[in-house]
Amino acid sequence: MKRREAREKAVQTLFQLDNTEMTVEEAIAYIVDKPVNRFYDRLVRGTLENKTAIDAVLVQKLENWSLDRLPKIERTVLRLAVFELLFNDDVPHRVVLNEAIDLCKTFSDEKSGRFVNGVLSKFDENNEEGMEESE
Predict the structure, then answer these.
(1) Three-class HEC string of the chain
(2) Per residue in 63-95, pLDDT tens?
(3) 13, 28 in Cβ contact below 8 A?
């Protein structure tokens, strides 16, 4: 599984898990076959494990929006992207932004991609700003 496909599957899995009683294992089994790709698994579990910190940083970056008001797909893509920006050092900032925009285009529309780009562009290249605010 290529990284792009892993991100798409991660968005689908995280989308399913948002406000449901489904377990992580059930959601993963519904989206991918075994064996589970390591990058995909890290994206899903890492985003879920760090959701509180991710949401705290996102709330500070959103202007005139609350997380609850965001459409579910944008919220899911933002959480995944912020996980990669803050907790995954092996992916360049620009790649995370481009992938997030493409995910929005795949699962939503161009307008959604522009919104996500605007929020993610508030993170500096070294991610230090986002990390300091979340502590």
Answers:
(1) CCHHHHHHHHHHHHHHHCCCCCCHHHHHHHHCCCCCCHHHHHHHHHHHHCHHHHHHHHHHHCCCCCHHHCCHHHHHHHHHHHHHHHHCCCCCHHHHHHHHHHHHHHHCCHHHHHHHHHHHCCCCCCCHHHHHHHC
(2) 888 898 999 999 999 999 999 999 988 889 999
(3) yes
Residues 24 and 48 sit within 8 Å (Cβ to Cβ)? yes
Question: How does residue 56 score in pLDDT terms, banded at 50, 70 and 90?
Answer: very high
